[in-house]
Design brief:
The protein is mainly beta and 122 residues long. It contains no helices and twelve strands. Strands 2, 4, 5, 6, 7, 10, 11 and 12 form an eight-stranded mixed sheet that branches. A four-stranded antiparallel sheet has the order 1-3-9-8, with no helix packed on it. It is elongated, with a radius of gyration of 14 Å. The termini are far apart.
């Protein structure tokens, strides 16, 4: 069984910063890309940022220059550093891994974490 567990959400004032973490657990052999998505109340889930195993990144226009994704392949962990937070960044943030291969050769597709709530408010 493969799981993604997010942490680091919370309440922060506008202009503040937070760092989210997402750790993958299980008998993992490889994870290609990992990413962060978010879903605000009443809105659809949207891509925030993704990173490949080689370190190539993509960002939504709304977070470019403010958010930074990074990963530690040895720890199967991805991070999201969020700076200059705005009220419109308020959402549940989800970690995603499109493909996870275990040491037993099993492939899991579209693995999602349970989400962590980020609230930006004064």
């Amino acid at each position: 069984q493969v799981q993604l567990v997010e942490s680091g959400g919370g309440l922060v004032q506008p202009g503040g910063s937070l760092r989210l973490s997402c750790a993958a657990s299980g008998s993992i052999f490889s994870i290609n890309a990992m990413g962060w998505y978010r879903q605000a109340p009443g809105k659809q889930r949207e891509m925030v940022t993704t990173i490949t195993s080689g370190g190539s990144t993509k960002y939504a226009d709304s977070v470019k220059g403010r958010f930074t994704i990074s990963r530690d392949n040895a720890k199967n962990t991805v991070y999201l550093r969020m700076n200059s937070l705005k009220p419109e960044d308020t959402a549940v943030y989800y970690c995603n891994a499109p493909v996870v291969v275990t040491t037993t050769g099993r492939t899991y597709r579209e693995v999602w974490g349970q989400g962590t709530l980020v609230t930006v408010s004064s």
